[in-house]
Design a protein that fits this description.
About 80% of the residues lie in helices and about 0% in strands. It is mainly α and about 450 residues long. Helix 13 runs parallel beside helix 16 and helix 14 packs antiparallel against helix 16. It starts with a helix and ends with a helix.
Length: about 450
């Protein structure tokens, strides 16, 4: 009986094993990595905050007409905004290491909303400086590209170039959404409803940030996307301001920092400072309707998305120094032709310029981020924050000097030509950034 029972048990077991072998394996369900959800929330957050980036060029003529402020005065307020946007970024990156991404971004959006809302009651130029220059500048600086760099560095090991391109394109997507809307509001009603719209857009994003934006992959028990091993969450870093300054003092002793900062300053001068601030007034000088000019800037936003994502893809595959040189050279050539293209009507050569400039608008960001990571390792987000500060200082100077040039010469032509020459210099600067050896990177 025992032998028979043993044999029967053996037969049953054998039959079960054979059936198991014959059954096809169940398909493994592939779950989307949480890093992509964080990137999506970051993308939407930057879009919501991008409303304020669409307003300066639209405000110059209405404020000049209502308050009789000179374009230089209005440009000075815009330059304060742009400068603080850059100078706040490295400290914001350090604050994110200390207090977390979610808290810093939520506070920044609230400050942007407050600054934009308060402009509705302003009656003097110093109030524009305070509200739009100081408050919106500080808030927007905390929402700068250093935010995208911090998210990319923490949540992604693979596809960093692509992700940085997508997140950079979010600002252009916001411009695409808000420029036509805000220009329509200003044209139909007044500039004040447009300022309120900016405030509401910033506030609307705060709940998404607070509920969905996680600080680190370890918070949800995951590895960074593409990482081979689990990365524990680092402890909060005290002394955020001190660390930002310490990283700067270390970086300024290296040649690549000055080259990266110089090229990015020219990038800011030829985009935010020049086109975004002065294109609409310059087109208006050429008797182009304001809504048509605003629509052209929105088209730049469309192709900016395409160009920046493509640049991220290229950065994962090609030498970033050469990419930067090509981008700046092409931008400089296009600016030289712009004075010949401005007119009362939108014609095919102008459309070609808009498409071309849009593709190149912030295509410089992914390769610049890649070079910061290559040169400065774990401190790259803060270093990039300082490089971004130079971007905004360049933008601030041209936002102010462009208005002064218009008041002095009655035309923007000299500004277009000077910016084109600066872009040619940036192309040469990008080519001489030295490449770190494998040993230097490992020792960093």
């Amino acid at each position: 009986m025992e032998g028979t029972a043993g044999r029967k048990l053996y037969v049953v077991t054998q039959t079960t094993d054979t059936a198991a072998v014959r059954q096809p394996p169940k398909p493994t369900r592939v779950r989307l990595h949480r890093a992509w959800f964080v990137a999506a929330v970051t993308f939407v957050t930057i879009i919501g905050a991008a409303a304020f980036r669409s307003v300066p060029g639209l405000l110059i003529d209405p404020l000049h007409d209502e308050f009789d402020w000179s374009r230089g005065t209005i440009g000075a307020a815009v330059s304060v905004n742009l400068a603080l946007y850059g100078l706040t970024a490295p400290f914001a990156a350090a604050l994110m290491d200390r207090f977390g991404i979610r808290r810093v971004v939520a506070v920044a959006l609230t400050v942007i909303a407050a600054g934009s809302w308060l402009t509705v009651w302003m009656t003097a130029a110093w109030q524009l400086m305070l509200c739009w220059g100081l408050l919106v500048g500080l808030g927007s600086g905390s929402m700068a590209l250093a935010f995208a760099a911090t998210v990319t560095n923490r949540w992604f090991t693979a596809r960093r170039g692509l992700v940085s391109g997508i997140l950079t394109a979010a600002s252009a997507s916001g411009q695409l959404i808000f420029l036509p809307l805000l220009s329509w509001i200003i044209d139909r009603y007044d500039w004040r409803p447009a300022a309120v719209t900016v405030a509401l857009a910033a506030l609307a994003v705060v709940p998404f940030v607070w509920l969905l934006l996680h600080d680190h992959p370890a918070d949800v028990g995951q590895k960074p996307y593409g990482a081979a091993e689990f990365v524990p969450k680092p402890p909060p870093v005290p002394g955020a301001a001190r660390r930002a300054v310490t990283v700067l003092l270390s970086a300024v002793r290296t040649g690549p920092f000055w080259l990266l900062a110089g090229t990015f300053a020219i990038c800011g001068a030829s985009t935010n400072g020049l086109i975004q601030t002065h294109f609409i007034p310059a087109a208006h000088d050429a008797h182009m309707p304001v809504r048509a000019a605003a629509s052209l800037l929105a088209v730049i936003g469309v192709f900016d998305v395409v160009g920046t994502i493509a640049s991220g893809w290229f950065t994962d595959r090609f030498e970033p120094r050469r990419l930067l040189a090509v981008y700046y050279a092409l931008r400089g050539v296009s600016l030289m032709f712009l004075p010949l293209l401005l007119g009362p009507a939108v014609h095919p050569p102008m459309v070609f310029f808009i498409v071309f400039y849009g593709l190149d608008w912030v295509a410089t960001v992914p390769p610049t981020l890649a070079l910061c990571r290559e040169q400065y390792g774990e401190d790259s987000a803060i270093v990039f924050g300082w490089v971004l500060a130079s971007h905004q200082v360049g933008a601030a100077l041209v936002a102010f000097l462009g208005g002064v040039a218009r008041d002095t010469f009655g035309t923007y032509d000299v500004v277009w030509y000077a910016s084109g020459a600066l872009c040619a210099a940036a192309a040469l600067m990008a080519l001489v950034i030295r490449r770190r050896s494998v040993g230097e990177v490992a020792a960093a």
